[in-house]
Design goal:
It is a single chain. The protein is mainly α and about 210 residues long. The chain is built from 8 helices and 3 strands; from the N terminus they run ααβββαααααα. It has 2 domains: about 10-125, Orthogonal Bundle (Arc Repressor Mutant, subunit A); about 145-210.
């Protein structure tokens, strides 16, 4: 369906996949909050009516979730807070300047999206016949809301289109270089060029090469 060779993963995506490989997370079914917390030595706690929180205390890392929320929301909150924790954002974001806090929230959102739907796992799925059904496949396989699945799928298509355009630009420049190179000139063109140089030399003009 798509030419994945054009897909350019971000550095954060690569970090997520390296992390998963290091702890044996290989399939969508492995992307489980309890399993990942256990593998990373994170203490997962549940309280009622609180804001999700990630913090580190005496070298012990914690993620606290609101158990009064739906399982889906808890799942989303876990990976968002995991992004904060692994990127060194742990603590009270309300004490940070708005601009800095907003940046950290955006970074955690990106991490959660990549951690919930890693591109390498998406590549290995059996895609449906019609593209419109792909977000529903992602939603089902990775247990995420359909709107987040659509967002991720649109992002992947944009990245592949950008990669294809970049490769086309590279090839166009290579072709221009090949055409401009004297090694690719026909014999008649080479003869004309030598004649032009000879005439300039005879007139004492010389030839300047840039």
């Amino acid at each position: 369906m798509l030419q994945w060779s054009y897909y350019q993963p971000t550095q954060l995506e690569k970090q997520v996949m390296n992390l998963y490989q290091s702890i044996g997370i290989e399939k969508p079914v492995d992307i489980d909050e309890v399993l990942i917390a256990s593998c990373l030595g994170i203490k997962l706690m549940y309280e009622r009516n609180i804001l999700p929180l990630a913090y580190e205390n005496d070298r012990v890392r914690f993620i606290v979730l609101d158990k009064s929320l739906t399982a889906m929301q808890q799942r989303l909150d876990f990976f968002h807070e995991l992004g904060h924790l692994l990127r060194g954002h742990a603590g009270d974001q309300t004490e940070l300047p708005d601009l800095f806090s907003g940046l950290q929230e955006e970074q955690a959102d990106h991490f959660a999206k990549y951690a919930l739907m890693p591109y390498q796992m998406i590549q290995n799925l059996d895609f449906p016949e019609y593209e419109r059904d792909v977000p529903y496949l992602l939603s089902s396989e990775f247990r995420v809301p359909i709107d987040l699945a659509k967002e991720r799928w649109d992002q992947i298509k944009r990245r592949i289109s950008a990669g294809r355009w970049e490769q086309a630009c590279i090839e166009r420049e290579r072709n221009r270089y090949r055409k401009a190179s004297s090694a690719n000139w026909c014999d008649e063109a080479k003869k004309m060029f030598r004649t032009a140089i000879q005439r300039k030399m005879e007139k004492g003009q010389g030839v300047v090469f840039r």
